[in-house]
Each structure stands twice: as C-alpha cells, then as structure tokens.
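Problem 12. The chain below contains 347 residues. Write out its predicted structure in token notation.
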Amino acid sequence: MIMLQNKFQSSFKVQRIFCNKQSWFILKGCKALLSVYSATKEHDNISRWAREKGAADKINENRSLARREENKAPRRVSTEKLILTNEGNEVFGPIQIEHLMKVPHSGPRIRTDYRKSSSPYNDRAISNDREELAQKFCQSKQTIPHYYLTMDINAEKLINLRKEMNANLQEGNIKLSINDFIIKATALTCLQVPEANSVWMDTFIRQYNTVDVSFIVSSKSGLTIPTIFEADSKSLADISSGIRSLTQKAKAGKLQSDFKEGTITVSNLGMMGIKQFSAFINPSQSCILAVGGLEKQLIPTHDGGSRAADLMSVTLSCDQRTVDGAVGAHWLATFRQFIEAPHLLIT
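Solution.
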C-alpha cells in the first residue's frame, strides 16, 4: 500500500496497482477524480494515457490509467504525470510511474524483470541440508532396487471421524489433520508387517523393534525430514502436536536431535493437489509411503449401483532386497484396513 506523500496523505490511499496482460496500469479500491495534466510520452515508457490532457473523471475499481510501450522495461520518471483530486478539488498527487511499478499486490502478475541481468543464468549456493539430501537421493536410486505399489483407499470414515474428534478437541486447541491419521496408520501397519520396518545391511537385514516415522517438510534450505519417534505408541493428539512443533523447527532451521532418521517415511503432497506420485527410499530404510490427494470417484454399492466417495491414492516404494512384492502388497492392504476403519487408530 502506498500513501501519497503530501499534506493530504491521511485522507487518501493508493491501495493496489498492478499490470495486466495488456500492460495497463490498473488502480483498484479508489474512488476519486482523475486528472491527467501531462501527456508527454517522449521521456518515459508510457505510450498512451487513459484520459486526455486536462480531462477529469471519477475512477472506480478496475479503471485503466495508462499503457506501457511494448518491450520496454519500467524506468524511473521524474516528471509529474497524474494527479488525483476528490470532489472538493483537493489535490492528492502527483503519482509518478515508479509508484505504479512498486506497489505490492496479491494474486498472479506478469513478470517484467526476466532480463535485468546480462548473464543468461544465475548460480545458487547449495545449503548443507540440500547437499546431504542430494547425496542420499543419488545413493537411493543408484543402490536400492525400487519397486512401486499403488492403491486407492476409501477415506470417508476417516474424514468423518476427524471432524467428530476435532469438534471434541476444540477446548484443548488441538486440530487433527488427515496426515496425523496417516502417520499413526503407517506406524501400526509396520507393527503388523515388521518386514517393512527394516533396512538392508549388505550381509544381513536389520529389523527395527520400534517404529519411528519420518515425514518430509519443505523449508527455505530445501527438504527436511524430521521424525516422530515411537509413533506406534503415541496418541493422535501427541502425533499432531509433534508434527506441528517439528515443522516449525524445520522451517526455522532449528532441528537437532529430531533430525535423526526414522525407520519409515511418509511423503504427503495431497494438500498440493497431487493425485499420485512415487518417492525415493531413504537409504537407511526399506519403504516410503507417497500420499496423494482426496478425489471424488464412483464406487460400486451392494445393490449393483454406484455412488461417489472420497478416495485417496497412496504409493508404497519398496526395497526389493528386504521387502518382497507379496510383503509390500500385504503392507498396503493392512494400511487400507486402518484407514477404512479409523477407529482402530484411537484404541
């Protein structure tokens, strides 16, 4: 938001100005009189004003002010171009073109700064976290024989249970997410199918006795993978608060002991509109669960008809050395049981 710098600045605000596809400057949220008193074009990048010199008209939202010349970058203009007056003819200007270029706005905009640099590219520094993850990704794809199993799961009962539980947890300032249920279901599934809660050690397979579920957080330095330790023995509320706390630490770059690797990982991109994807296995684990978004699909009914239901697509990436195909299929079938009977997650 720009406040015009003059003695009337407390009375008038330029709320939002931006550039649309035709390069018109749009003034929104203002109701005043527009008077264009200089139509000089030779010294700036204005090709046409929306009003003739000396004309005055009331401006409402989405009124065009001026048009830029094609293929010209914004330039600083020192001469006064526009003035705004109210109905009492008080002057609330001048507005200069650099003001139009600098006003922040919400929503999409057309970029005009692609070629500010003469170089054809920019080199970005690599953070320690990104370098470590890059090494793990390469190790994962180069040394682990991946295979992938995908299943659609009916999440209607989970959605309804979550709404019911959140209504009862309002006083405790706790709000469960679908991801909290997924983390819990992943942990309990690993107890039922312990072969997936393991890692290949070259000469033997190490099977973990506790289930520590890692999850992926996007931070400024790249991806971070915090862990909920002993998630199989934690309540949904404890898992939810743990995820919130670890996510805040990860985005602030303050993870320490919480950064210790887990025994299985969950990667959830469903909140970003992704239906289905496959993820890399962490080299210290045997499986990673990739969770897609909810999608309305038709399912058969007992009377031979069909109805719409909220289905969730999940893909389990498995290490063929430790988790055979039948074991991976058994893991997904067990996970589906927990999601479709979510009351089992709170007993």
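Discussion. Confidence is low (pLDDT under 50) at residues 1-64, 66-106. Students who got a different answer should revisit the alignment rule from Section 12.3.
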